[in-house]
């Protein structure tokens, strides 16, 4: 990395040096040959131009580096690069247009102004003014030359420089000064000593110093006829024209010198000086016309580029100040969305961005605090939910283990819970009735009960109700005692209803069975006693009057009395048997032998009926009252035989369900079958479909099966007949 950086720096330095050389060459070429420009100005301008160029290059390098960096960020889809690009483009656009307009306007203005400055009339006026001044000096010099020639001639011809004529020379000096109205006239000998002088009256207070020897020798060295020197004094510039005597003499021929002085007024001297100085400056500026214009162009270009670069730089700075907090906010938002509420933005700002950043930090701090509070509340709620769930499960276990069915409704009469006993009693599934109206539990014939429940609990707001409800479950009539209790909260507001089902079917059946046994006992006791005298009386009447009455009607009546008496006796015997039916005394016993013995009793007596036995292997030992089980099987076979009118089949099956610990004894026939309407009442006393009998056979079978903790039901035997199934527990319970 260091080697690459040093290599890059060397390349940059070489590039800068090469660029400076090129710019220097361009600068020299732009200023022309430069021979007409003072070297000092040329050097200063060259230094300033190069300094400007270096600053411009440095600024351009920094801007270019940032632009390249921004380009790479945008290409790599760095967050915030698009916004920075837009801001920089906006600043460049807003700055470039007025800058370009101002640049070209300034170029035109500078060009026009420079051309105006160097217009020919101004230069001509300065040249004329300078020429006027020069002509004035020339006129003074020509006049003085004339006067010098005359004065030198007179002095030389009259030999006034001789010592003996010194007085006359003095007079002549005054005459010349006054005659030609000169400011001063002086004569010097060949030894450069002033001999005489005459000064005008207005210059009496001024001191005229003698002309020094060098000034006098200057003309001798230049071989001129006249020459002049100028001096400054308090009254203005004094022009002293000098000529040798004789006029135009050279070297040893010179006898002396005559000097004529003319004083120019101070204002004239000053004006002539200003004209001369202005002309010189104008000429100098004229020589600098092109460099000045180029320098203005370059300066203006630098200023314009500086404005553009400053706009780019300011755009970068402003975009960075805007995008950096925004990117920080975006990153913070992402971190907060991911759940990191500890994220904090540390951006230094003092404007609305600071307010936004402070608001974000405050939001994360509040969220962090609220999350802690929420976590604490969630923990407590979780613990409470666990406790509630444990209580609910406990209550559910209790409800599922109670023998009564429990169903709860909400305030709208919709079923919310149902326990296993209720599902089993009503032969329904909780999934089918949950969130459904309680009306689904009751049948159409219970509309009165549905309306009564609605009136009492949802209209009158009563507390409880107990009703006996008969329902047909799986084709069997079931009797339930249903207790309705209103559910109320702590404020006494009704929030629902609970229905408790008690299956009273077996209890009522037992009660009816007990009642029928009592009735059978009384009938057997009250009816059986008179039957013997009636039968004996009929036999006595037949013996006594058989010979005296030869009427067939008499014999038919006696026979009818005997037959019906015997019939009534059989009925009474059935009642007696039903009333005296003993309690079962189960002992370990095998069921298949009982089945075979029972079927064997009928195989020979009913040739038109085919008897079949199907006994599964490995039938376990059961606790049975052998005699009662055999009696119940005989009753079932009798019932099957009576249902077959002509020919048919009777099949006795014995099977075992080891998983349920149940043994099944089934007696199926191909007789007339049993209608669905009669099936619920088959095992009720005094219910029969036969023309004879009291309907106690199946009631006795049901009693025996119940005493063995089993159950019995009737079903169809497809395609024809009925099928009675006895379910007995393997372990006797």
Could you characterize what this model shows?
The strands form 4 sheets. This protein has a 5-stranded antiparallel beta sheet with strand order 2-1-5-4-3, sandwiched between helices. It has 733 residues and is of the alpha+beta class. It is 58% helix and 17% strand.
Which short descriptors sum up this protein?
17 strands, 733 residues, 17 helices, alpha+beta
Class by alpha and beta content: alpha+beta
Count the helices. How many?
Answer: 17
First-to-last CA distance: 93 Å
Return Rg in Å: 75 Å
Which spans have pLDDT < 50 for at least 5 consecutive residues? none
Query: Quick one: overall form?
Result: rod-shaped
Helicity, in percent?
55-70%
* Adjacency order of strands in the biggest sheet: 2-1-5-4-3
What fraction of residues sit in β-strands? 15-25%
Give the overall average pLDDT.
80
Oligomer: single chain
Total number of β-strand segments? 17
Give the biggest sheet.
5 strands, antiparallel
Topology:
Layout (H helix, E strand, L loop, with lengths): L1 H29 L8 H37 L5 H37 L2 H39 L7 H14 L4 E6 L4 E6 L13 H10 L3 E8 L2 E10 L10 E9 L1 H22 L1 H49 L14 H50 L3 E6 L4 E4 L1 H7 L3 H4 L13 H13 L4 E10 L2 E13 L5 E10 L1 H41 L6 H28 L7 E3 L1 H13 L5 E7 L6 E3 L1 H18 L4 E10 L4 E8 L27 H11 L3 E6 L5 E8 L4
Parallel strand pairs: 12-14
Antiparallel strand pairs: 1-2, 1-5, 3-4, 4-5, 6-7, 6-10, 8-9, 9-10, 11-13, 14-15, 15-17, 16-17
Helix pairs in contact: 1-2, 2-3, 2-8, 3-8, 4-7, 8-9, 13-14, 15-16, 16-17
């Amino acid at each position: 990395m260091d080697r690459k950086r040093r290599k890059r720096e060397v390349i940059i330095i070489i590039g800068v040096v090469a660029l400076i050389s090129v710019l220097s060459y361009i600068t020299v070429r732009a200023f022309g040959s430069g021979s007409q420009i003072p070297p000092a100005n040329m050097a200063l301008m060259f230094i300033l131009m190069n300094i400007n160029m270096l600053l411009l290059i440095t600024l351009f390098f920094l801007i270019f580096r940032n632009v390249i960096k921004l380009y790479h960020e945008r290409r790599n889809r760095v967050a915030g690069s698009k916004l920075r690009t837009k801001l920089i483009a906006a600043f460049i656009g807003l700055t470039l247009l007025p800058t370009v307009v101002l640049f070209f306007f300034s170029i035109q203005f500078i060009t026009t102004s420079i051309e105006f400055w160097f217009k020919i009339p101004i230069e001509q006026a300065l040249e004329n003014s300078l020429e006027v001044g020069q002509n004035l000096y020339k006129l003074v010099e020509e006049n003085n030359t004339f006067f010098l020639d005359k004065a030198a001639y007179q002095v030389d011809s009259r030999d006034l420089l001789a010592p003996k004529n010194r007085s006359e020379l003095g007079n002549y000096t005054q005459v010349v000064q006054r005659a030609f109205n000169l400011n001063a006239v002086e004569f010097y000998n060949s030894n450069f000593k002033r001999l005489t002088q005459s000064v005008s009256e207005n210059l009496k207070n001024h001191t005229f110093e003698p002309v020094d020897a060098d000034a006098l020798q200057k003309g001798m060295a230049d071989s001129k006829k006249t020459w002049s020197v100028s001096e400054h004094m308090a009254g203005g510039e004094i022009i002293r024209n000098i000529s040798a005597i004789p006029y135009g003499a050279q070297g040893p021929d010179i006898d002396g010198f005559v000097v004529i002085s003319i004083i120019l007024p101070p204002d004239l001297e000053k004006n002539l000086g200003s004209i001369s100085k202005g002309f010189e400056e104008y000429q100098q500026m004229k020589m600098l016309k092109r460099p000045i214009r180029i320098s203005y162009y370059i300066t203006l270009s630098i200023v314009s580029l500086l404005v553009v670069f400053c706009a780019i730089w300011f755009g970068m700075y402003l975009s960075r100040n805007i995008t950096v907090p925004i990117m920080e906010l975006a990153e913070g938002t992402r971190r907060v969305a991911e759940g990191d509420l500890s994220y904090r933005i540390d951006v230094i700002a003092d404007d609305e961005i600071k307010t936004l950043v402070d608001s974000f930090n405050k939001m994360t701090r509040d969220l962090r605090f609220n999350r802690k509070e929420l976590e604490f509340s969630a923990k407590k709620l979780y613990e409470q939910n666990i406790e509630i769930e444990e209580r609910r499960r406990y209550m559910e276990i209790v409800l599922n283990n109670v023998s009564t069915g429990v169903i709860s409704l909400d305030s709208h009469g919709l079923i919310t819970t149902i326990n296993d006993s209720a599902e089993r009693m009503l032969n329904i599934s909780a999934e089918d009735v949950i969130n459904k109206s309680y009306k689904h539990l009751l049948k159409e014939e219970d509309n009165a009960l549905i309306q009564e429940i609605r009136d009492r609990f949802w209209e009158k707001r009563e507390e409880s109700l107990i009703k006996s409800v008969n329902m047909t479950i799986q084709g069997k009539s079931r009797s339930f005692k249903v207790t309705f209790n209103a559910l109320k909260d702590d404020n006494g507001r009704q929030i629902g209803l609970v229905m408790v089902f008690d299956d009273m079917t077996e209890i009522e059946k037992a009660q009816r069975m007990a009642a029928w046994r009592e009735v059978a006992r009384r009938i057997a006791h009250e009816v059986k006693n008179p039957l013997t005298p009636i039968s004996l009386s009929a036999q006595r009447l037949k013996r006594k009057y058989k010979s005296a009455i030869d009427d067939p009607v008499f014999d038919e009546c006696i026979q009818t009395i005997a037959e019906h008496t015997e019939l009534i006796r059989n009925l009474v015997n059935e009642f007696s048997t039903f009333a005296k039916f003993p309690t079962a005394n189960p002992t370990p016993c095998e069921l298949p032998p009982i089945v075979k013995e029972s079927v064997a009793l009928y195989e020979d007596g009913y040739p038109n009926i085919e008897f079949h036995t199907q006994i599964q292997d490995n039938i376990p030992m059961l606790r049975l009252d052998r005699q009662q089980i055999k009696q119940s099987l005989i009753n079932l076979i009798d019932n099957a035989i009576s249902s077959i009118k002509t020919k048919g089949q009777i099949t006795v099956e014995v099977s075992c369900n080891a998983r349920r610990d149940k043994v099944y004894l089934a007696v199926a026939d191909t007789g007339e079958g049993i209608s669905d309407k009669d099936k619920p009442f088959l095992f009720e006393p005094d219910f029969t479909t036969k023309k004879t009998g009291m309907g106690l056979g199946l009631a006795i079978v049901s009693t025996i099966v119940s005493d063995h903790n089993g159950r019995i039901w009737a079903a169809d035997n497809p395609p024809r007949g009925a099928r009675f199934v006895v379910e007995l527990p393997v372990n006797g319970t």
